[in-house]
Amino acid sequence: MTSADAVSREAPEGKEVRRLDRVIIRFAGDSGDGMQLAGDRFTAETASFGNDLSTLPDFPAEIRAPAGTLPGVSSFQLHFADHDILTPGDAPDVLVAMNPAALKSNVDDLPHGAEIIVDTDEFTGRALRKVGYDGDPLEDGSLDGFHVHPVPLTTLTVGALKEFDLSRKEAERSKNMFALGLLSWMYHRPTEGTEAFLKRKFAKKPHIAEANIAAYRAGWNFGETIEDFAVSYEVAPAATAFPAGTYRNISGNLALSYGLIAASRRADLPLYLGSYPITPASDILHELSKHKNFGVRTFQAEDEIAGIGAALGAAFGGSLAVTTTSGPGVALKSETIGLAVSLELPLLVVDIQRGGPSTGLPTKTEQADLLQAMYGRNGEAPVPVIAPRTPADCFDAALEAARIAVTYRTPVFLLSDGYLANGSEPWRIPEADELPDLRVPFAQGPNHTLDDGSEVFWPYKRDPHTLARPWAVPGTPGLEHRIGGIEKQDGTGNISYDPANHDFMVRTRQAKVDGIDVPDLDVDDPRGARALVLGWGSTYGPITAAVRRLRAAGKSVAQAHLRHLNPFPADLGEVLARYERVIVPEMNLGQLATLLRARYLTDVRALTQVNGMPFKAGQLARMVEEALRED
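and the corresponding structure tokens:
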């Protein structure tokens, strides 16, 4: 296990119970084995128990990947603890491997002494050969460094469901619940929530619900009675890790969806989503479609261009407008984003980044759309860019994106990624009065007086503080005005080809973005370090965990994390100048590093990774330490 036992005692039935401070579990099997469901349920019960947690789902892009193959392996990793944690963990303490492919693709990640639970029914000669095993790893000694628990999961599950009128194939589908029951016994997880969930999930098929519950209970009873599982483990609730409040487990996409709904209510605007399904952003469309009671309208368009076109039309009509996508969709939406810049209308462009280029790695994570968000449009078309740092932070990032959009009348990029979107952590549910007031007034009447004394409405007459133009809802008497992509005359909004006017409008749109009010950078530097580790987006957890390790080892390292990437915080240049070495970890080839070098002439050191997975804390700590030795 990952930590020394705090307590070791005998359970009433004679089995030993050890108390640990944290555990990392990984469920792995075919994409049809229900590993994501088992992981989700274990996570939900862990959250209800009060542990801090972080998750990392990992699955193929195919709906049903080839069974028994290495590319077809689906996994779900959960790190839970009795204290504050930041990442899903570097190396699993426990691996549940449903077949040889799951074992082979994950065994190299395991530390010495880790526990492996395998479904021995799946370790047939054909299955072993399919993934390149010459012999049976359960018998050839290659796993001697681990605690291996061979369990005939399939046979036990089918046997437990004999009384149900199910075919063998149908019964086998419940083996993920048997495994979940076994792990729930091993780690003293609550059971009531999972049983209630299964009844709800299969409410229209109660016999399937009862079969899954029976398999779940059989797994629990197996762990309780079999001698091979002589020890179970307790991880106490993280009582001191969280401020007081009501918490729930939440994924990044769900938090972002709730943030958008909250933003619409605090802005007193209807929420409109124009979208086209794309991994890993589709869950936002699915979730928002459930909330018509909050005035949410969702439109699943025929393509990416239609989705953002509808959203921009909704913005013109007075809605809080959103379009969701990933990198390939941003490419298709780029012309309409430029139109939104020209029209100066509020529009949230939510990019859940994934591995690229082109179709790339649809279910893997990456941070490689930053330069696309900054510059991926024709002409000078500046767009504010913000990025959440954790799954729960997606809620606050959505509120901040909405604030900027409606206050400054501009499209705003919100850059999340697959790691945040699918991962989860505890989230404190805020009170309504804690949320910002996002209301802005619509134009109601004339705003300009001509030389002859007549009062008129000028659609491009700007607020002197924000440089935002009026937001006039169509149909308001006297506020009729022209829109379109051709350059407008300052003030009047008439079509203009005048060179001086175009120069003025380009510079004004840039000044509007540059003048957005963003907070100064929060720098964590308790010891006056010479080196700063600066990140953005989902690298927050691995960077913070790595910095903690380095400080524990006696290294003096400062840390800061950017939420606002355009404009940068006003004090960023001054912060960078304070340090002899600035290290920037990114899941790309150095895009933020490029921007910092160009803007501040700072010789930053980029630490990059583009393997479709988030940084590991230990790996990143070693990379930072090596960069520090280069001084």
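(Above: one complete record from the training split.) The CA atoms of residues 69 and 130 lie 7 Å apart.
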